[in-house]
Specification:
The chain is of the alpha+beta class. The chain has a single domain, classed as Alpha-Beta Plaits (2-Layer Sandwich). Helix content is 27%, strand content 32%. It has 2 helices and 4 strands. A 4-stranded antiparallel beta sheet has the order 2-3-1-4, covered by helices on one side. The longest helix has 18 residues. It is globular and about 40 Å long.
Length: 97
């Protein structure tokens, strides 16, 4: 079983308290659905800056999950709440060191 990092981009911020509560409930339900595959729910990102020409830009958060393969991890990401709001999920295999 390998470790995979989900990076989130886009999706926007909720404008009202009710929208924020609904968004948090959707994320909570998704993490619950993933169950023990979730190794670290991660965090949203606040401000950022980029150093170097290859630095990623526009990421809004991350999570770490366990899966049997990159394809299996991508399957887990397909029901991520950020996708409902025009965002995206990058799926990266973390190499054991």
């Amino acid at each position: 079983m390998g470790k995979y990092v989900f990076t989130y981009s886009g999706g926007g911020m909720a404008a009202t308290d009710a929208e924020r509560e609904a968004a948090m409930a959707a994320w909570g339900a998704w993490f619950e659905q993933l169950g023990p595959a979730v190794l670290d729910m991660g965090n949203p990102f606040a401000g950022s800056t980029a150093v170097g020409s290859g630095a990623p830009n526009g990421l809004t958060g991350y999570s770490i999950v366990a899966a049997d393969s990159l394809d299996a991890a991508a399957q887990l990401a397909q029901s991520c709440p950020v996708l409902e709001h025009g965002g995206g999920v990058g799926v990266y295999e973390a190499l054991a060191m």
